[in-house]
Amino acid sequence: MPTQNSINTDRTNALTNRIAALIPCPPVAAQLYAERADALASQVSSRLAHHPKIAAFLNGNPFRLLEINHRNHAALIAGILRTNDFKLLAKVLSWSYHAYHGQGVPYEYFLARNLAWKEAIQAQLPALEAHCLLDLYDWILGAHQDIIHAAEAYRIEGPGIPQELHEAYAAILESLIAGDYLNALEHCHRLLDNGLPFPKLLQYIVYPAMFEIGERWENGDVSIAMEHQATSTAYLMLSTLYYAQPFPAAHRGEAIVAPVTNEFHELGAWMVSACLELDGWNVTLLPGDTTLEGITEAARRVSPRFVALSISLPSNVPIARKVIETLRASLPADSNTHILVGGRALLTAPSLAEWLGADLSLPDCESAVDWARTLPSAA
Question: In this protein, which residues make up the domain named B12-binding (predicted)?
Answer without folding.
Answer: 252-379
